[in-house]
Specification:
This protein is of the alpha/beta class. Among the domains are: about 100 residues, Arginyl tRNA synthetase N-terminal domain (Gyrase A, domain 2), CATH 3.30.1360.70; about 80 residues, no CATH class; about 120 residues, Isoleucyl-tRNA Synthetase, Domain 1 (Orthogonal Bundle). The strands form 4 sheets. A 5-stranded parallel beta sheet has the order 6-5-4-10-11, with helices on both faces. The radius of gyration is 29 Å and the shape is globular. It binds one RNA strand through helix 2, helix 6, strand 9, helix 11 and strand 14.
RNA sequence: GCGCUUGUAGCUCAAUUGGAUAGAGCGCAGCCCUGCGGAGGCUGAGGUCGCGGGUUCGAAUCCCGCCAAGCGCGCCA
């Protein structure tokens, strides 16, 4: 366990011990004590941790919270982590971490190195994280980018805290939309070769469809015109989907997002898993035949209506294959927990998916669905819906090309998933020099610069004594560095990695402030060595935070 | 109409999940280079936390009711 969490636990233990002793000696009534709450006071002068436990015990114990707090404080054992504990109205106990403990953490961070922040929360539990999963019928758009950044960051965080995480992209390569896409490509293919062929109704009219058709013409020539239409259609669909997927993969790679598994929907059918799951649902009595279709009786599970699984034309719906897919995740592949990240347009699907999982006899609490709200693009305060270049919807690639991958990631990451976000393209570019991403990265390059300079001067500092770090800006920096494990813990528990962004900005701020305040390499060789250790540790923490967010940690800028 | 999500500084967003004086970036008004990288540091102005009730020691946070925005409500995915 990392330092700060040990210290925090220690404080909770000390309090529990104090209360126990107070109860035994009759100074406090014998009531059950809830878990000790510990938080960071808003005002730094109050201390590093505060507990409101006395306030909560007030009613239970029928005593004034201040009195309870004073009794606990009186009984509180001393501990090297804590230099000061005090009572504050209306019933808080405030704790200050000792300078000795804090400066000792610098050495501890250095020895942890890249493992700094590693926790054991997951205990190797098998967890699957599915995200993006955009249909291979078109390029990824901006909203997919948000899910991609959230998902990939979450995966890193959850791995770091001890989950066995697999990331997965579900490829909807079966069903009516794929058929429709194939017919659209086929029509464009024919048209490109001067053969009259109408686009299907509700087909894909984007320019990328024409581009794809032209690519296929370039590769295959007129060959497919001579095949029977059904055969040509199948072949063209296959080629087009593969090409679309390649493009999706490369767009994601630009954002630094890669997947462990690309799962094909059509394998659910070819392997018989789909039929098996339908059979199970039928045996459990959740299927009903009505109006020529087969329905999932979700209303019996508290949903507001039933849902069609097999259409009257015999074709399964997307929902049906998604049920089979989730059965595959939990039962066939044995994931303990599954997290799906979906766009806002899928939120109507959430509760019925959970109902379906429950119907299959799987505890629906093992499935967590995160909905990311919409991204609205702006340019100079005007909403941008369509790309000037193609006239189509703005693609993820265009966004990355325009603002850069790091800025793109940081921006997407800095908003909680459930709040809609506005993304002003001009602002993102204009501010590029003032952008938080550069501010954070610059802090990292500064650590590198100093360490380079020290190395050039032949300074070694393995024997540096960190207890010499006593100035306010040094201790403020250490206090912030020490918090990373707590931030990671919070991000993992709430599945909200946006905390990392705010932490990174705070960390960069205290580092820049320290850098301004303290001359690192000076005539005082002992202090120089101590400060170089501090800079080394700061580099580790900044680097780790950037890496977790999937941002570059440049040595120079 | 029903469901989900959101409403916090001029703008974009946080708030350790019920805690003490609600914070940051941008923007705005100033100040700081005799420094290892100024892509930096420091200071200031700016808030009825959408509105109204309620719950309790304590509410931006929980409950109820309004108002507003986004997304759903298909034998599309």
């Amino acid at each position: 366990m990392s330092g700060i969490l040990e210290a925090r636990n220690r404080i909770a233990e000390l309090m529990a011990e104090a209360i126990k002793k107070a109860k035994e000696s009759g100074k406090l009534p014998d009531v059950n004590i809830p878990e000790v709450p510990l938080e960071h006071p808003q005002v730094p002068s109050y201390g590093d941790y505060a507990s409101s436990l006395p306030l909560r015990l007030g009613r239970l114990m029928r005593k004034s919270p201040v009195e309870i707090a004073e009794t606990i404080l009186f009984m509180l054992p001393t501990s090297p982590e804590i230099s000061k504990a005090s009572v504050a109205a209306p019933g808080f106990i405030n704790f200050t971490l000792s300078d000795e403990w804090l400066t000792g953490q610098v050495d501890s961070i250095i020895s942890d190195g890249d493992d700094y922040g590693r926790l054991q929360l997951g205990h190797g539990e098998k967890m699957q994280l599915e995200f993006v999963s955009g249909n291979p019928t078109g390029p990824l758009h901006v909203g997919h980018g948000r899910g991609a950044v959230l998902g990939s960051t979450l995966a890193e965080v959850l791995r770091l805290v001890g989950y066995d995480v697999k990331t997965e992209y579900y490829i909807n390569d079966a069903g009516s939309q794929i058929a429709n896409f194939g017919r659209s490509i086929y029509a464009r293919y024919c048209q490109t070769l001067g053969v009259d062929k109408e686009m299907p109704e509700g087909g894909y009219f984007g320019d990328y469809v024409k581009d794809l058709a032209r690519e296929i013409v370039a590769d295959e020539g007129r060959l497919l015109l001579s095949s029977p239409e059904e055969e040509a259609l199948a072949r063209i669909t296959e080629i087009a989907v593969r090409r679309m997927l390649d493009r999706i993969k490369s767009d994601l790679k630009l954002l630094g997002v890669e997947f462990d598994v690309w799962f094909s929907e059509s394998t659910l059918y070819s392997s018989g898993q789909f039929d098996n799951v339908m059979k199970i649902l039928g045996e459990k009595g959740y299927l009903i035949s009505r109006e020529g279709a087969i329905w999932f009786t979700s209303s019996s599970l508290g949903e507001d209506k039933d849902n069609v699984l097999i259409r009257s034309d015999g074709q399964p719906t997307y929902f049906a294959s998604d049920i089979a897919y989730h059965y595959n995740k939990f039962v066939e592949r044995g994931f303990d927990e599954v997290i799906d990240i979906w766009g806002a347009d899928h939120q109507g699907h959430v509760s019925r998916m959970k109902a379906a999982v429950a119907a299959l006899g799987i505890d629906p609490d093992r499935l967590t669905i995160i909905i990311t709200q919409m991204v609205t693009l702006y340019r100079n305060n005007e909403i941008v819906r369509l790309s000037k270049r193609t006239g189509d919807i703005i693609t993820l690639k265009e966004l990355i090309d325009e603002v850069g991958a790091d800025a793109c990631r940081l921006f997407f990451l800095s908003r909680a998933a459930d709040s809609q976000m506005d993304f002003d393209l001009e602002l993102a570019k204009e501010q590029s020099s003032e952008n938080p991403v550069y501010y954070i990265q610059y802090a990292h390059t500064r650590t590198c610069g100093v360490l380079r300079y020290a190395k050039g001067k032949g300074i070694t500092f393995d024997d540096g004594d960190t207890s010499l770090l006593t100035s306010e800006s040094e201790l403020d920096l250490i206090k912030k560095m020490v918090l990373l494990p707590e931030v990671i813990e919070a991000a993992a528990k709430t599945l909200e990695p946006h905390h990392l962004v705010y932490y990174a900005i705070d960390l960069a701020t205290v580092f820049h402030s320290f850098y301004k305040q303290c001359r690192i390499i000076s005539e005082d060789s002992k202090l120089t060595k101590a400060r170089l250790k501090l800079v080394t540790a700061a580099k580790i923490v900044l680097g780790k935070t950037l890496a977790l967010m999937g941002l570059n940690a440049p040595e120079t800028m």
